[in-house]
Design a protein that fits this description.
The complex is a heterodimer. Chain A is built from 4 helices and 8 strands; from the N terminus they run βαβββαααββββ. Chain A is an alpha+beta fold. The radius of gyration of chain A is 17 Å and the shape is globular. Chain B is built from 3 helices and no strands. The chains are: A alpha+beta, B mainly alpha.
């Protein structure tokens, strides 16, 4: 998976085009260097394709936008760390298990972004907000998915959810 | 009246330009609201107009106009 990050104004179409181009370039590089093994037995499609099967998820908050791209379904969400009355959000939308993980603003945002990222991965979006529970193990399409906290953006908290895989970070100008 | 009130709420809560809040404005793409902004806005809408925004309905709310219409259809 590659997670692209950009600060400041952006045009969504241009951004996604740039990310896709860079993502494909990166994959070609690893192919040429022979680091990627052929995994034909794992799925019907051969691993080495001219145009790989790309999945992506976009999230923005404040002046940061992130795009996660992978060959598996992926969901990503970031939130700017800003004081807010999160109590009522927890009360109305979190399960007991999730609420137990909330101790302060940052932990609230961790749970929130994990919930959001999972809902973006499944495609349910906000309509699944109250019926989801990320304090339990997560699955998609019968397979377990992992959530990874993103603490590398100063002033932001984020989570990415996908099948277990290495993550590369790229910051765009 | 609903539109003006909603516009005021967005300007005050999300701190965005009044000019950006038009009926056709897409909440995420044009207004730049993130997921938390949207949930907070919907909770404020529920409180202001005494309605409940169904989890299912959220899927179809893309523009400011969609929200105004939803409020109009559901308020008492």
């Amino acid at each position: 998976m590659i997670i692209f990050a950009k600060y400041g104004e952006y045009d969504r179409r241009e951004l996604i085009d740039e990310c896709l181009t860079r993502y494909l370039e990166t994959l070609k590089l690893t192919k040429l260097e022979g680091e990627v093994k052929e995994e034909k037995h794992r799925n019907e499609k051969p691993y080495f394709k001219d145009y790989p099967f790309v999945r992506f998820s976009v999230s923005h908050s404040g002046s940061l936008v992130v795009v996660a791209m992978a060959e598996t379904e992926v969901g990503i969400d970031v939130e700017e760390i800003k004081e807010k009355p999160y109590g009522r959000i927890v009360e109305r939308n979190f399960t007991a298990g999730e609420a137990a993980e909330v101790k302060d603003l940052e932990s609230f945002l961790k749970v929130w972004t994990k919930k959001e990222a999972y809902l973006k991965l499944t495609g349910d979006g906000l309509s699944g907000l109250r019926s989801s529970d990320v304090s339990k193990p997560l699955f998609y399409d019968g397979k377990p998915v992992e959530s990874t906290t993103l603490a590398i953006f100063d002033g932001y908290v984020g989570t990415v959810v996908a099948e277990s895989q290495p993550i590369i970070f790229v910051q765009l100008d | 009246m609903i539109f003006e009130k909603l516009q005021e709420m967005l300007v005050n809560q999300l701190g965005i330009d009044k000019d950006k809040v038009t009926p056709d404005a897409d909440i995420i793409k044009d207004i730049g609201a993130d997921s938390l902004d949207i949930v907070e806005m919907l909770m404020d809408v529920e409180n202001e107009w005494g309605i409940t925004v169904d989890d299912d309905a959220v899927k179809d709310l893309h523009t400011i106009g969609d929200i105004v219409k939803y409020i109009e259809n559901n308020k008492k």
